[in-house]
Amino acid sequence: MSGVEKSWEPEAPGALDGVRVLDLSRLVAGNAVTHVLADHGAEVIKIEKPKVGDDLRNWKTEGVSTHWKVYCRNKKSVTLDFRHPRAVDLMLDLAATSRVLVENFKPGTLEAMGIGPDVLHARNPDLIVVRISGWGQDGMWAHKPGFGSLVEAMSGFAAMNGFGDRPPVLPPLALADMIAGLYGAFSVMVAIREIEAKGGRGQVIDLPLFDPIHSVLGPIVANYDLSGRVPERLGSLSNQTAPRNVYRCNDGKYVALSGSMQAMAERLFRTIGRPELIDDPRFRTNTDRVRNNHELDPIVAAFMAERTQEECLAIFEKAGVTVGAVADVAQLAEHPYPLDREVIVSLPDADTGRLAMHNVIPRLSETPGRLRRPAPELGEHNDEIWRGLGHDPAALAAEGAL
Question: Hey, what's the torsion of the CAs at 319, 250, 295, 270, to 10 degrees?
Fold first, then answer.
């Protein structure tokens, strides 16, 4: 079993104790927002469709809902049928006791349901409403479906990713959703500070998937404005720094190298026995090296190709050159670094005995996040939450509301 063995800590305190978050979202982005908040103590209540639940439950490996178990740990689950006549009143009762509401319906859906931000704020003026969509709550594409793959394509990411002689490449994970999730969690904390430190009120956070992933692509638009050039796809090479690539060793394994600083590039040249390259006009500066990368990269690659991965790592570590192993998940799961840092932990699981997953991040020295409880079963907390609001869960279920 991978990871350092840990136990759930149901009574552990957290910095966000007392912050109730309603999560009406499905799949990745909304769960990514609330995952961070839950890990740091927020009471996150998943509002799920009866008998069906969040679609993330259906992303399975070997029959196990691993995405759900990882990204919905520390959360609670209640069911509610939004088509039921009592749904609006029940949602407003929940909203009245909450600090944050997260949703990722098509723009306008909350309003059509009768629980738009104006209605929610009339009941709870301090409520922070996070509205996740593909393209934003307004603008010419607000009505369009916005799955992460479409956003990753349109944002500029896919056009930069891959090799020039092959089609653009989408990421092998929900990258746009995860980036939006991190921005979303941060924006919630900004909105909470506005209320708690400055006497502000609740507000709406318009969180499309497009804006966050575009923002992390760096100055691509600024560079285009200045140069008029569309960057070509270079695989693991870089349009901005050189040398930088993934290199094959003679044992079939790979190492990654980044010589983005001038001092590091010069140290690399000395280490591979080519100090004359330091003053070679083709490679003297970073701009020179990028321009002539087609000549520089084969020199570095040839050095790697004559040695094993272990030999390359030892040589460059001794010389202080920034080279690291390319590790697949099997190697990562057993590597001493993530085990020493407890980056990967193994937790008790009702279905598998134990299940490995990433630890809480980031690490706070005084108020660390905690692993309090496993991801909930569908409707597991109906009795606790609905009864706490003065409703009879059995009666609501009999009516078909739950």
Answer: 20
| Dihedral angle over CA of 344, 347, 352, 357, nearest 10 | -30
> pLDDT of 203-216, one tens digit each?
999 999 999 999 99
Q: How many CB atoms lie within 10 A of CB 91?
A: 23
| 177 given a catalytic annotation | yes
The letter for the amino acid at 402 is: L
CB-side neighbour CA atoms (13 Å) of 203: 15
For 237-285, what is each residue's pLDDT tens digit? 998 899 999 999 999 999 999 998 999 999 999 999 999 999 999 999 9
Rounded distance between C-alpha atoms, residue 284 and residue 241, angstroms: 13
Question: pTM score, two decimals?
Answer: 0.93
**Cα–Cα distances in Å, from 161 out to 225, 234, 328?**
20, 8, 20
Q: Catalytic pick from 23, 81, 177, 297?
A: 177
In 112-121, which positions are buried (b, 16+ CB within 10 angstroms) versus exposed (e)? ebebbbebbb
